């Protein structure tokens, strides 16, 4: 059950299992009743070797340096990955006080509170150890369940870009949200 999942910072030895989980997770992107949650064509929903390599490198980049990333994993009772969340440096200069969020929950663990727990772990780390002031995220506007989760967790909609993506012949908007995690 997802409510019993143990959440911890990922170690380098977790990354192979994480990428296998992530590619399985991406198979759900826009399939069946699941909203499109990644801005990529359904048939191309995969985390390839080049992206894996860049992700691995970013997890060892020092906090505060361009391109840093931190990853937390939720493990179910059988030791499988039930969900993940990562925070990463914003690509723009002069934004060291902010991070971008990415996350996902395995299909059988959704709607059980795990997403909110993952966000709490990342927000506590961001405000404390990392000394960040804001967490930002970008979400496909059609992904209503994700937008609702983020709003329940204190994220505020800061904008929307209409027709940001054209995926599988569909024009898709992108919603921008932010959460203040530390008082100035």
What does this structure look like?
The model has no long low-confidence stretch (mean pLDDT 92). Strand 2 (69-75) and strand 3 form a beta hairpin. The protein has a 7-stranded mixed sheet, with helices on both faces. It has 4 helices and 7 strands, in the order βααβββαβαββ. It is 25% helix and 32% strand. The protein has a single domain (2-136), classed as Gcn5-related N-acetyltransferase (GNAT) (Aminopeptidase, 3-Layer(aba) Sandwich), CATH 3.40.630.30. The longest helix is centred in the middle third of the chain and has 14 residues, at 114-127. The protein is α+β, with helices and mostly antiparallel strands and 184 residues long.
CATH architecture: 3-Layer(aba) Sandwich
| Average predicted confidence as pLDDT | 92
CATH superfamily: Gcn5-related N-acetyltransferase (GNAT)
Tell me about the largest β-sheet. Answer: 7 strands, mixed
* Helix/strand order, N-terminal first: EHHEEEHEHEE
CA-based shape: globular
Could you say what the CATH topology is called? Aminopeptidase
| Strand residue content | 25-35%
Number of alpha- plus pi-helical segments: 4
Residues in helices, as a percent range: 25-40%
What is the CA-CA span between the terminal residues?
A: 38 Å
Report the count of strand segments: 7
Spatial order of the strands forming the largest sheet = 1-2-3-4-5-7-6
Alpha-beta content class: alpha+beta
- Classified by CATH, the class is Alpha Beta
Low-pLDDT runs of 5+ residues are none
Task: Please tell me how large the radius of gyration is.
Answer: 16 Å
């Amino acid at each position: 059950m997802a409510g019993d999942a143990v959440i911890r910072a990922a170690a380098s030895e977790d990354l192979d299992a994480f990428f296998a989980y992530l590619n399985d997770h991406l198979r759900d992107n826009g399939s069946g009743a699941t909203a499109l949650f990644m801005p990529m064509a359904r048939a191309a929903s995969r985390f390839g070797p080049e992206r894996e390599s860049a992700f691995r490198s970013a997890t060892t980049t020092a906090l505060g340096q361009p391109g840093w990333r931190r990853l937390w994993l939720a493990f179910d009772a059988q030791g499988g990955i039930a969900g993940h969340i990562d925070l990463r440096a914003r690509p723009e200069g002069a934004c060291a006080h902010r991070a971008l969020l990415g996350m996902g929950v395995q299909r059988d663990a959704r709607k059980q509170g795990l997403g909110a727990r993952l966000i709490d772990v990342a927000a506590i780390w961001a405000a404390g150890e990392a000394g960040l002031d804001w967490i930002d995220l970008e979400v496909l506007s059609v992904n209503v369940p994700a937008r609702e989760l983020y709003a329940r967790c204190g994220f505020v909609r800061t904008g929307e870009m209409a027709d940001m993506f054209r995926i599988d012949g569909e024009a898709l908007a992108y919603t921008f949200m932010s959460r203040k995690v530390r008082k100035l």
